[in-house]
Every structure is written in structure tokens, then in C-alpha cells.
Design a protein that fits this description.
single chain, alpha+beta, 2 domains, two-stranded antiparallel sheet, 6 strands, 44% helix, binds zinc ion
């Protein structure tokens, strides 16, 4: 992400975070928390571990880099989730800055621009539980939207048809990795949810409120019982059988 830095202070604070990962002081996940929620001090783990402290200039630098990062990724992804292609943002779905290779397992890729994209809350959630734990270097297990010369249509065809009263989304895998993406990120649920949402405004609004709540929760945190329960509820409320 050095490409995004516009001053020696910004390059410096980013280097500080990558150094803290390299020397084992911070995990990729905790270093990313320092970056994405710039505070004067972060306390991780037991109180015995000294807090990671940031000056107000460092916090300003982190905020500036993040702002540029978000603008670049949203522009690069054309405002859509890199995996399911549904629109994200103000008029779309809740979204995350998405590490293609999980920062928890590939800490050295935490601040690599080439490992970052935009993912909607649904894809982020399913990827954390069904992809991130099994991917190995060079083999993500599903489509890698950050790969050079990547073309979505080679892996999946995406059709969205909307009328006044109905909205239909259909994914057609064109490649084994497209099929893996469809299965592991539960695209069949997206197809079903889109249709039901278009018919049932109340259920759609409840789903949106749950998404808003889940936005700030880390999908890999298995101890977060409220978030786990809400995710289960979200998946079950659309099951027709
Ligand atoms: Zn998505």
C-alpha cells in the first residue's frame, strides 16, 4: 500500500505496522484493526502485553491512507462486490475491505494492495467460514478477483433482471473455480434472497438491519455469540422448506 502514501509520515506509519507484523508483535488481524480504526492506543490480548500507541499525526496519516484506499478499491471494483457482483455502498449492500488471502493466515499480505478488494457482507461472511481456513498460497480455492488479467465472465456469468415487482439474480458457473465460488459463498442463497426480498419489503428491511449490525463484527471471531446467532438467523429466515 506504499503506492497510496503521499508523505514520509504516511510511509513511516505503514512501515511501522508491517514491522510490527514481521517481528511478531501484532497478528495481521490486529495490525489491520490499528489501520482501519485509528486510535491513540490499541490493547490486544492480556493486559501484560504493552498497548500499541499512535501519535495524533500517525492517526491522521492512517486515516488519510484509508480514505485513499477505499476510494481506489471502490473505483477499481466499480462499486460492486468482487465475488457476487452485487452493488455495495449507500444504495447497495453493506461491505468490507476484503483481504483475498485472509490476513489471519497470510499476515505478510495484510497491507498489500494486490491482496485487497471490496466484498459484500454476505460473501465476506461465507468466505471467512468456508474458504479462508483452507486456502494456500497460490490456491485460494475460489475465484481470485485480484489476479492479473482476471475476467469475471470466464468464471461466472451473472444475470440480474428487475421488473416493478420482481428481482431475479442468476449465476451460471463457467469454470470449476466459478462453481466452487457459487457453492462455498452460497450464491444459491443470494438467488433466493433477492427474489424473496423483492416480494417482501419487511423481511428485506430486517435483513438489512442485521447486516448493518454485522458490519462491525469480525466473521472469524467464533466467540462472538450474538453475531453468530444473527448470521444463523439470517440464513434460516429465507429457507423455504
Ligand atoms: Zn458479494
Amino acid at each position: 500500500m506504499n503506492e497510496l502514501c503521499e508523505s514520509p509520515a504516511e510511509t513511516g506509519v505503514l512501515k511501522r505496522l508491517t514491522d510490527l507484523i514481521e517481528d511478531g508483535t501484532l497478528s495481521g488481524t490486529n495490525a489491520w484493526t490499528c489501520f482501519s480504526k485509528p486510535l491513540a492506543s490499541h490493547q490486544f490480548g492480556e493486559p501484560i502485553v504493552p498497548p500499541v500507541v499512535f501519535s495524533s499525526d500517525e492517526q491522521k496519516s492512517l486515516k488519510a491512507i484509508k480514505k485513499r484506499l477505499v476510494a481506489l478499491l471502490v473505483k477499481r471494483g466499480k462499486g460492486a462486490c468482487a465475488y457476487c457482483k452485487r452493488p455495495v455502498g449507500r444504495y447497495g449492500f453493506g461491505w468490507h475491505l476484503e483481504h483475498v488471502y485472509a490476513k489471519s493466515r497470510f499476515p505478510s499480505k495484510t497491507f498489500m494492495l494486490s491482496n485487497l478488494t471490496i466484498g459484500c457482507v454476505d460473501c465476506n461472511k461465507w468466505k471467512a467460514t468456508s474458504v479462508d481456513k483452507t486456502s494456500v498460497e497460490g490456491q485460494l480455492g475460489i475465484i481470485d478477483p485480484t489476479k492479473e488479467n482476471f475476467r469475471y465472465g470466464q468464471f461466472l456469468k451473472y444475470v440480474h433482471i428487475a421488473t416493478e415487482s420482481l428481482s431475479l439474480v442468476k449465476y451460471m458457473p463457467q469454470h470449476p473455480l466459478g462453481k466452487e465460488t457459487w457453492t462455498r459463498l452460497r450464491f444459491s442463497e443470494i438467488e433466493r434472497v433477492t427474489l424473496i426480498d423483492s416480494m417482501n419489503a419487511e423481511m428485506a428491511s430486517l435483513h438489512d438491519r442485521m447486516n448493518d449490525f454485522l458490519l462491525d463484527r469480525d466473521p472469524s471471531d467464533e466467540g462472538d455469540e450474538v453475531a453468530t446467532l444473527l448470521r444463523k438467523l439470517q440464513s434460516s429466515m429465507y429457507r423455504l422448506s
